[in-house]
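WARN retry 2 of 3 for item q-0093 after timeout on previous attempt; input resubmitted unchanged.
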Amino acid sequence: MGMGIAQQFEQIITQQLRAHAAWMPVTNNYKLGDYGVISNGIFNKMGNIKEDFDVTFTQAQGPEANLDFVSDSTRVIKFAGGAEVPVIPAGAIDAKVALKFERERSLMIKAPTITVTNIENVNSVFNQLKAQGSWDRKFIIVFQTYFANDAVIISTIDAGTEINFSGNASALQNFKLGNAGIEINSNKKVGLQILGKAGILALGLVRVKKQLFGGEKVMFLGPQDPVEVEQLTNAPLEDDL
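OK item q-0093 returned
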């Protein structure tokens, strides 16, 4: 069985941003300090360390990022005045952008501006948690959020899917496909379609390293235990459930 849309999205985010999928992308309510477990290769939120454990932390902005991914055998064709053009000129008549996905289960992710926000004092966070003596080592914490503006995310189901965007030439020129002046037509049903929205696209995840004692896993982080932090970057996530 092939991977689902969520797992496909996770794989691309891992490869392109060295982070992990915030699922559903953009329309979720993830924030710094969320904690949870991995199920079906995707992070699942259970709560927030501020609200549930009274943990405090400081946050700071990281460097901006961007993402421009299109599956193989996908074509982006631009038109103005009924003719194919390399760039849609300002004020163009009959401006159109056609997306042609030749393969099934294709994916397009475009996020020209991504703002990254970090928890600065990760070690302090885990020291606060271990002082309580009840932190389960399998829990993973969101220590980075990747906030995308004007995100375009489209996944197809069938091969030969074509989506046409027409109308506002300025919006099409800048690939702002969620603009109110854009009309959308598709010849087939799509799996996921997020156009021009802003929200959390990806997550940076961290946890305390799991330990063995006498061959058995130590499940909880005790007050006397050393804190060894493990940042989860581009490695596939293993299920906890």
